[in-house]
Amino acid sequence: MKNTTHPALMGSLNSPAPSNAVINFSPGPTSLPKEVEHNIAKIFNSSGLTTLALSHRSPEFVEILDHAVAMVRQVMEIPNNYEVLFTHAGGHGQFAALPLNLCKELTDKATYVVSGTWSERATEEAQKYCQVDIIDNKDSKTGKYTDFPTLTEEKIDTNSKFIYLCSNETVNGIELHELPSLPNSRKHIPLIVDASSDFSTKPIDWNGSGIGVLFACASKNIGHPGLTITIIRNDLLGKGKASPLCPGVFNYTTNSDAGNLWNTPATFNIEVVGLLMDWLEKQGGIKENEKRSIKKADLIYQVIDQSKGFYKTPINKPSIRSRMNVPFNICNGDEALTNQFLIESWEKGMVGLRTLTPFGTGDYLRASLYNGVTIEDAQTLASFMIDFSIRNKV
Length: 394
Known about the structure:
Blueprint: E1 23-24, H1 34-45, H2 59-76, E2 82-87, H3 90-102, E3 109-114, H4 117-126, E4 131-136, E5 163-166, E6 168-169, E7 174-175, E8 191-194, E9 211-217, E10 228-233, H5 252-257, H6 267-282, H7 285-305, E11 311-312, E12 325-330, H8 335-347, E13 350-351, E14 365-368, H9 375-391
Parallel strand pairs: 1-13, 3-4, 3-5, 5-8, 8-9
Antiparallel strand pairs: 2-10, 6-7, 9-10, 11-12, 12-14
């Protein structure tokens, strides 16, 4: 029998709307800003080899690599005591690379702050390589994460090699708008941050927050899948610091010493990061981008909060509501209305509000508001949500 399920309910991103009307609200991979896409097209329409074919050892590519590193440093205001690496295997690669680089022995301890799906997965991976202490506040009845745990002295072993957290949980809708301050007696412990989905959307106090390592896979805000930026404080680098089990491709010191060229990097993806950083600088830098991120999220949350219960979001505390990923349901998850919402929005070009993931479809739709989504795009969705609620009040 022919499958009659509507494409919008299957996670399709191919809307029948005109291409200039399509807005990608997918949680990732997602779209780049239009200007960056146009600049990429210009490169491929010019003469000569592109980074799809340039040798990573060629002077042409080394210039592109140096530019990307320099612009990441400039836009993100990264101090000189940090190294910028372009690494492989996405965020999952770093889930393994971190304990392999910072825990020399399997008996070494690390503290993991679990506030959602991605910090859970990072914890599961780390347990293969070190002894993990977990700090969380998952609701014992619902199994849900709706807040960020407090980091107190008694929760953190002073011998921990590092403290790990995820600054934005895409599935759960929890974001740290500022990184937490560690107790004075634990400030010697490096803070590790998975910033995969909020990197480049707000300033970072690198030394003040005690960041040891921060990583961000590119495919949310700064580029394409297959590349991760990993930023490491220099004192954590050095011969003999990593586990002897650490593969060379994951070894921070090995790759730092080789200037990001120990093996073939993702050449095209690195060039795209450079172009995205150029765009951010042109748009006013990191502080202006944070203002845009706040505005986009506020447009959607205002609709939810003013809908008198038609829309609901699981995170009630404004101080930790994600600006990047806004989860919401319709009439407490009414299936018929949710499907109608997805179909109507998809036909108007608003795609990616529900995607099929390893975790299922979840209890909530999600509007992801990465750098490729403009304030006008967020307003388009907000206006549709208001209109839909008026037409379908129950």
